[in-house]
Amino acid sequence: MAERINAQSIGFPPRKSLLILFSMISTLFVFSWFFVLRSASSPNFIENSLLPSSSPRLFVIAVDNNNSDSRDPNEAESSVTNRAILSNGDEESSQDSSSVNCKYEGIAKPLKVFMYDMSPEFHFGLLGWNAPGKSVWPDIRTSIPRYAGGMNLQHSIEYWLTLDLLLSEHSDSSRGRTAIRVRNSSEADVVFVPFFSSVSYNRFSRVKPPSKTSTNKILQAKLVTFLTAQKEWKRSGGRDHVIMAHHPNSMLDARTKLWPAMFILADFGRYPPTVANVDKDVIAPYKHVIRNFIQDSSSYDSRPTLVYFQGAIYRKDGDGLRKATRGMQSSKFCLNIAGDTPSSNRLFDAIVSHCIPVIISDNIELPYEDVLDYSEFCVFVRASDAVKDKFLLNLIRGIGKDEWTRMWRRLKEVEQFFEYQFPSKPNDAVQMIWQAVARKVPAITMKINKSMRHSRSNVRREGGTKSIPSPRNFW
Ligand SMILES: *[C@@H]1O[C@H](CO)[C@@H](O)[C@H](O)[C@H]1NC(C)=O
Ligand SMILES: *[C@@H]1O[C@H](CO)[C@@H](O)[C@H](O)[C@H]1NC(C)=O
Ligand SMILES: *[C@@H]1O[C@H](CO)[C@@H](O)[C@H](O)[C@H]1NC(C)=O
After folding, report:
1. Per residue in 367-378, pLDDT tens?
2. Is 167 a residue whose pLDDT tops 80?
């Protein structure tokens, strides 16, 4: 009688139809769930609010435990009004870092990173920084260019990682650092490409006449020309290069040419597996846009909403952000459904709101999952289960106060791993990403060594990589 559909029974459809199917299921799920709520007769259930008129792109479902009207339980909680802004690490630091018992101690030897001195048009120039004279980098001891604001910030990893490398040259010691910049590329573990590809996509994708091509496209073409001409690239075929492409649409042209490199991505949703995959690449968190819930003294009982979901793009306007903040901070669980990409910043907003994420995204790849057990603080639900009548609600209701509290405590411990800041601190997002890169280094070395096996007898080719090999015979 169970109307279970599994992959075997329906065959395995091609990627594209899977994607369509999945979006359909997601949509269906949202609606079916809405009706589940409407038809639930439990006295325990309440409050679903759809707010189409006041904020057309906001879709909120909240299930209450109690019958009271409690849409704004944290009315007094007002630390939320500002959107996430660049911090210098002072005001926004997460509270619990000293009490964290974590096994993610910095690596014994810092990762040695060679960074190309690329023209500012590839990095800080995109943020409006005017290089004085011939300088390539801003003097970060005197002033730090700001990253583009608003929702651009969620993909700002390029900014934080680059600043961290620049700072490593100014700090007296390498203590507390996971990565240091080296000037001699022969001594480097990896080669870092400081192209701010996300801001390039976000801000420079429009074609401005008389030009026929967008700056974003021009820069990518220039980048490919530049990189493939470098001795460092030729030496390794690009395998030891680190390229940031956090916005899912960034590097759209260059990715198929530079794919031997290690990408730092938000997810693999828009990449063919030959170009990007979990073995070669690193998944980095979004920078959360909801502010940290500092001094969160809430409890299972004091969070009135059972499950919170905010769909679509709550972004841009401060009002949507305020509502989302209030919603997440006053809910026990926060729903994460795969949107147009498998990942979204909603997950990281939930984490810093200490709202237990319920993840319905079968293909999601999570940051640092090789060292971090997400099941300690997230609930994972298969999409095929989530569409079953009342499955989700029953599952969530089945998680009692003790279990919830354990997960909530763990959230408060792990949130530091998702914090981008400058200067970086031990085990924050910046350093966790460097550590993830460092863990890939042995595999890269092996790949390079393998590719060099025949270099002695291979007289015609110098350095091994005149042309970029095709993905098929690369591995
Ligand atoms: C760079 O490092 C390599 C290997 O340690 C060394 O042989 C070379 O002389 C160095 N180059 C410079 C310019 O210091
Ligand atoms: C929910 O109901 C319980 C028991 O009736 C009560 O103790 C609690 O304060 C209520 N919570 C809210 C937010 O109304
Ligand atoms: C690759 O070769 C280098 C020497 O060029 C050696 O030090 C290293 O151990 C080798 N790595 C692997 C994984 O074989």
Report:
1. 999 999 999 999
2. yes
Q: What is the Cβ-side half-sphere exposure of residue 190, based on CA atoms within 13 angstroms?
A: 28
* Mean pLDDT (whole number) for 69-79: 29
pLDDT at 475: 44
Ligand 1, residues at Cβ distance < 6 Å: 184, 186-187
Of 65, 75, 302, 330, the one to substitute when testing ligand 2's pocket (max ligand atoms within 8 A of C-beta) is 65
* pLDDT per residue as tens digits for the range 238-258: 999 999 999 999 999 999 999
Task: Compute the chain's Rg from CA coordinates.
Answer: 24
CATH 3.40.50.2300: does it fit domain 305-418? no
Probe target for ligand 3 pocket from 240, 439, 445, with the most ligand atoms within 8 Å of CB: 445
Is 304 touching ligand 2 by the criterion CB < 6 Å? yes
* Length in residues, the chain: 475
Backbone angles phi, psi at 370, to 5 degrees: -75, -15
Give the residue whose CA is nearest to atom 14 of ligand 1. 184
Residue nearest ligand 3's atom 8 by CA? 445
Domain boundaries, the chain: 47-107, 111-286+424-473, 305-418
